[in-house]
Amino acid sequence: MTATPLTLVPRPEIDPSVDHGIQAIVAGASSAETCNTDLAAGPWDFDIRPGYGPGASMGDVIPTGSPRQGALPQDYRDAAEDELHARITAAKDALGDRVVILGHFYQREEVVRHADYVGDSFQLAGFAKQHPEAEAIVFCGVHFMAETADLLSQPDQAVILPNLAAGCSMADMADIDQVEECWEQLAELYGDLDAPDADGLVPVVPVTYMNSSAAIKGFVGRHGGIVCTSSNARTVLEWAFARGRRVLFFPDQHLGRNTAKAMGVPLEQMPMWNPNRSLGGSTTSELEDAKVILWHGFCSVHRRFTVDQIDKARAEHPGVRVIVHPECPMAVVDAADESGSTDYIRRAIAAATEPTTFAIGTEINLVQRLAAEHPQHEIFCLDPVVCPCSTMYRIHPGYLAWVLEELVDGSVVNRITVPAEVADPARVALERMLAARP
């Protein structure tokens, strides 16, 4: 039998902009659903209010004293999308090599189009080191990412976060005081945490996800630990197990559980540490037998994905390939065909040689962009409700235009700096991470 050549039917152009979709929903021009119609407003409407803003993290409790963004000048708030695009482009041209713009995969399309580098947190940490000649690094992401860029860049380089209110609810779930208290309780249980046993292993090695504050990274660096990302979590856990009997993993329980489970660690050896309970809510025997102690934290974006959504995708799209992020709950990761970092998801789609239907469990801005970049495939988000990351969405092109035009005028605004007493040990933990390549 002769094979019949496959003819691709051209599909209408896919708009990569999530914001355009949300505006259409609010205007009644789309039948899709969003988790909060306030997402159609400018983020400056929420900067003066406590909270993470509309989106996936809007139900999370923000710590007292979290950074707030000052008022954005009115002309940036009033400017249309095309005007902001032109102003950003002109400012970039004027600044030339004096500025490098980094954009996370989860940023809105109107911001990402101006980034010199786009990537996940692991990749952007590396890009931050590659341009010592730049006077400023504008990090279009969230607060802990800008802190990391400051740790890895040159002392005379200014790292700028366009909107100071762009935090991370997951990172905020591991407070430095709570982590220090946890460490003290573990020392009471295990003894001297710096003392290796007969096999040369210490009782516990701390591992923090990149999605954590500089203070937490500094804690890890001081105590012989390491930072990980979703790209190298397995490699980092292998590093830690070669040095310690156990791992204290924070702040995301799901990445820790899914990674350790794939490495063969039994679930009963992964107790949860709830910082609001004595011994984290576990018994002494559970902690004695533990291989991985999981912090009670999570990502509100990835917690939205469910097994029911996967079942529905399979029923409606026979042969669908389901890929989810390892920050999703274990049941979701187990029900999917594959799990991996944002860069893994991007590369998996790019490598597919035949037209394929993909159901993706990660942040909607990346999913929508991938759908636009690969029209030969059918690509959709597992969650039918449009609900972007609350804090990534706080970076609006109005803020990017503002910080760039301030640089053109010789002024640095929204600079992120990490104190030396925190930066030095945090840098040690980050350098260990950068060396732990999968």
UniProtKB/TrEMBL annotation:
The answer on whether this UniProt entry bears the keyword Iron reads yes
Q: Where does iminosuccinate bind?
A: 104, 121, 209-211, 230, 325-327, 342
* Binding-site list for [4Fe-4S] cluster: 168, 299, 389
Tell me its cofactors: [4Fe-4S] cluster
Reactions catalysed, as given in the entry? iminosuccinate + dihydroxyacetone phosphate = quinolinate + phosphate + 2 H2O + H(+)
Q: What is its main location?
A: cytoplasm
Q: What is its EC number?
A: 2.5.1.72
SUPFAM superfamilies xrefs: NadA-like
The protein's name is Quinolinate synthase
